[in-house]
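Hi P.,

Sorry for the delay on this. The queue was packed all week, but I finally got your sequence through. Input first:
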Amino acid sequence: MDNVERREWTVSGMDCASCSAKVTKAVERLPGVSDVKVALMSERLSLNLAPDGTAPEEIETIVKRLGYGITQRGVAPTAVATEMEAQAEAHCHGGCCGQNHDHTKHDHAGHDHASQDHASHDPIGHGHVDPADRGKRWYQTSKGRLVLFTGVLLGLAWVFELLTSTAYGYWAFTVACLIGVAPIAKRAFEALRLGQPFTIESLMTIAAVGALFIGAAEEAALVVFLFAVGEVLEGVAAGKARDGIRALANLVPKIALLEKDGKTKEIPAERLAIGQTVLVRPGDRIPADGEIAEGVSGIDESPVTGESVPITRGPGEAVFAGSINTEAALRITVTKTAADNTIARIIKLVEEAEEARAPTERFIDRFSRWYMPVIVAVAALVVLVPPLAMGADWDTWIYRGLAILLIGCPCALVISVPASIASALSSGAKKGLLMKGGAVIEAAAGINRIAFDKTGTLTHGKPKVTDIVPAPDVAEPDLLALAAGVEAGSSHPLAQAILRHAEDAGIKALPASDARAIVGKGVEAVIEGATVWVSSPRHAQEVGGLHAEQAGQAETLEGEGKTVVAVFRSGSPLGLIALRDEPRDDAAEAMRQLTDMGITPVILTGDNPRTAEAIAAQLGTDYRAGMMPEDKQEAIRAMGKKGGVLMIGDGINDAPALKQASVGVAMGSGTDVALETADAAILRDRVTDIPSLIRLARAAMGNIHQNVTLALGLKGVFLVTSILGFTGLWIAILADTGATVLVTLNALRLLRFDPTRES
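Then the structure:
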């Protein structure tokens, strides 16, 4: 199994959940194939393939036999890219600097002239897609042409009947029905060959042919036409649902202005390498994640994080691909490849989130497995029981049984959940709210308690030194030099604050060795042959590193909402350093919103009780202080016994608590940790995005419940009316495809949902 390879394809033409189920069942039966996953909204087929198993070409053949387009993902558009680069080289031959070269035709919105060259490139960003139907209007697609063709046949049959007689018209409708149902029957036959007898195509074929046998040729032809119309509508609706994900990929411009040896040239943005420098002019989108090397400008990050106000950034600061440079020219050093930039990772997360299915979705999937066979059995009973038991008319009850068959497809029910989840994921991604799948959405919608880490989450995470209190025999510069020496190399916010203060004061950190962190207590290092500690006052007092008078001073400072650290050698107190980290501007507002939503917030912090109390009083929330990482984890476990609990932290120190929570949320501006460790992530540093994320999750679950009710309600109503003879075949097919379209359109409403607005 060590040689098993993960392979991916793009499968086009899947418009409902039964489509993805057909592909899954057909492929997973093949030798050497395992762990098959088909994501409907992102049109992705992924599987594990053993070296001696089925050839990739055979997998593609199987999928094509089912009536879908398939192309391998991850195929670089080398021909296109090479041609573009050659043109750029020729265009810039002899050298042209960014200031003199005419780029006025470059579209600053990112839809540049190169987009035509990349028309065949997968808009999701993972290779080529099937060129047959993608990007065409409905009437240019294969299903659209089938609608037009069957519509013309139906119209000609009606005209023929008017010009001749009903008898001849019957044969005209029969011909129209048989020609129209032929491609549907072909797909049904291929599914049957692959072990799938219960598909909508097979039910449709049986219903159409059965209607012909009982003399309902006109209605059979009409049903074939309406089925084709329904498939087109499903395709249009599914395409709309996918547009949100595709729009993310379109945020990154296709070309970049690469600077080399003082000259610029246009190259495909996907070819940028780490370390290269690109020129980004005012109004241009940034082509890659990078760091500003030269220039200061406002950066509009709204396309990536949803942050509507441009942020001024300068040399040394990070920027995202897809963000817009609003003011001045920038030179940016590329820090991540196209495949690894923030938008690419967001797209990948949104795509892969389809695999993390919600419990509701898994239940409906299990339900649908026996739902269709049961419907077929009911249809058979409707056909057989009345004529055999009561001597009823065979044609009447065959007709009603065929109508029930058409109602039996569970497409609307099965797609009701993934369509809503895909829309919610896409809507959230555009606002910097990332949730990794339906399971996370369902869990977030049900939480009633939320735990916050303090530093870097409720506060800015950039504390500043406010007080330095040296021992009587210690000079302030010496105390600061010792503390800076111990903290040198540490990334902790308190350590960084001490180092910044020492640097600003012109004090050099003393050389230190053997530095190590004491989890939850502080840091120690060897300086000038003696061990020096920078730790919490509580730990210092326990080991004799704090005098009674200093302990009182520490309590006073902590009562002012400051964090205090003690600096000492073994048995020799050296002094205190107090720091303060201010709460974020929107933290109190976020707490109010959560309380109004019926959610109880609490702060879990390793800080001292007096500092935690001061912050909690400002925010109007409960707190628990002096907590080690394992204490936070245990607190989350205890809270979880009373209902769903959400934990938000920095994604590193709070990892145990984040994993223990029903939903762990990492807060950070697109960092790897924020995107990959937790169940969800907030890309912009706004505490109010937490209630927004919960509102989005609740709206998604409400939408799912609406869809399930709509799908089951329509099925139930038309099942009864078909048995009673009130509705016929063409109403039955409308009930099936119409329900699918309705639930998909209802799910699309989530794309316009604004989670920041309080209901």
